[in-house]
Specification:
There is one protein chain. The protein is of the alpha+beta class. The protein has one domain. It contains five helices and six strands. The chain has helices at 2-16, 36-48, 81-86, 114-124, 126-135, and strands spanning 58-65, 70-78, 91-95, 98-104, 147-154, 157-165. Strand 5 (147-154) and strand 6 form a beta hairpin. Helix 4 (114-124) crosses helix 5. The protein is globular.
Length: 166
């Protein structure tokens, strides 16, 4: 169990110790993304995937290590605060001034503080924030037709892309 946790933490550090010159990306601890193909796929997702009737959203990337050379990333939109309550991202970046959260699957010992949730709602999910101010509670979940991109990388190169629509 300890080896698995250490392995996951190493994966987080390696996955998060990315570097990118021309992008404005920030993180609390100076982590930046370096995988240019992953960045390009996130940008393409942001540009092309639309969620009907939902204007306030940001991308969440689920990261899963398959083996030593293969990583899988699933891109989906966070359209309300409920996704953050159920699956809180462990790391946030901005890509082209848009928030992107990263969730490392198998790591469930993190939670966002209430003040962080409120701050995210205020900045990125204003309708949820207005509901919270009015009722002093988180709003009910939104149902939407999500499109998920499953990306498989081997040695940092995209080898497979699957688009899953609901």
């Amino acid at each position: 169990m300890v080896k698995k946790v250490i392995g996951i933490l190493i994966f987080i550090l390696v996955s998060g110790s990315f570097y990118c010159q021309d992008l404005k990306m920030k993180s609390e601890f100076g982590l930046v993304l370096t995988n240019q193909e992953l960045i390009a796929q996130i940008r393409l997702y942001q540009k092309t995937v639309k969620v009907p009737s939902v204007k306030n959203k940001f991308v969440v990337v689920y990261c899963k290590k398959i083996d030593k050379t293969i990583n899988e990333y699933s891109l989906i939109y966070c359209i309300d605060v409920n996704r953050l309550l159920l699956d809180p991202p462990q790391v946030f970046f901005t890509i082209d001034n848009q928030l992107v959260g990263f969730i490392f699957e198998g790591v469930d010992c993190f939670a966002l503080t209430k003040s962080s949730l409120i701050s995210i709602m205020q900045s990125y999910l204003p309708e949820d924030y207005e509901y919270y101010l009015k009722f002093n509670d988180f709003p009910p979940p939104i149902t939407a037709r999500d499109e998920i991109w499953k990306l498989r990388f081997k040695d940092g190169k995209l080898i497979e892309k699957q688009v899953i629509g609901n």
